[in-house]
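Q: Here's a chain of 165 amino acids. Please give me its 3D structure as tokens.
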Amino acid sequence: MDVGTTRMTVTSPEQMRDLGRRLAKLLRPGDLVLLTGELGAGKTTLTRGLGEGLGVRGAVTSPTFVIARVHPSLSDGPPLVHVDAYRLGGGLEEMEDLDLDVSLPDSVIAVEWGEGKVEELSEDRLHVVIERTVGAETEENDVRGVAVIGVGPRWADEDLASLAG
């Protein structure tokens, strides 16, 4: 059940990272973030900002070939588990092999390409949809429309509009 949606325009990779840093301030252990968008949309850039905002160790890079990477907290915050489900075709069964349900209570889990694959992990999740904005392209083609959708009771009282900056 969608409990709130915030839409915004992001015009540079730095703004996408900043959105990730702002989003991190709302996250707590047990949160699941689904990231949807075509190749090059900015999913990993946003996750890099999440990592910075959460204060985790290690450079946040796309975990395409390792599938999942854990970034421990440098303080007493939750670790960030960054998953790239692009190469996983089997849905939740393949995802279960990663034991994300074990990590979820203590971590923030960000899953790129997770739509249709990980929703069953939690009734509460944030779904971030990133789309290139047609007709509003800059020379660098960095303009994106971003929708942040809160799903489930966890997000009912959260002010997602504050993410718009």
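Q: Can you summarize the key feature?
A: DSSP finds four helices and seven strands in the chain.
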